[in-house]
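Schema walk-through. Below, the input block comes first and the output block second. Nothing else is stored per chain. Lengths vary across the set, and this one has 157 residues.
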Amino acid sequence: MKKHMVKVVAVITVAVLALLAGCGGRSGGKEPAAKAVVEAVAGEVPFVDTMDYVDTEQFYNLYRLDQEKVADQSMYTGTLASAEEITVIRMKEAGDVQAAKDAIAERLEDKRLAFENYQPGEMAKIQSAQIYTHGAYVMLVVADDTSKAQSAFDAQF
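--- output ---
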């Protein structure tokens, strides 16, 4: 009877471990930090201006997003004389990606209003800005040449 009980416990243990292994594991893709994505894309996209990172407080002043819904963000932008920018926002839920896209649309409109009379030469960059998504990630790229941005973004996942 004792040997039979040991076998039953062993079988149950193996079954539970198999179930746990099936339920856990990988999510099917990488979840890189937003700053790492920005750095990778910035390495591929040529910028005319001197670029620098924007702190979290300034990011939320520029992007009107619910901080409770944002998992991670990073913003790399030019001086006030340039519209150049890379912003990556990772939402906590993929269902909230539209909120990030809406915030990016507002940001682009703010840029348009700021630059149309101040630096009209920057308008082409703003008008050709690119927005890319992957799962819960949304990226904005404002630059003269965004041709390598998509592949650099996709390579992060």
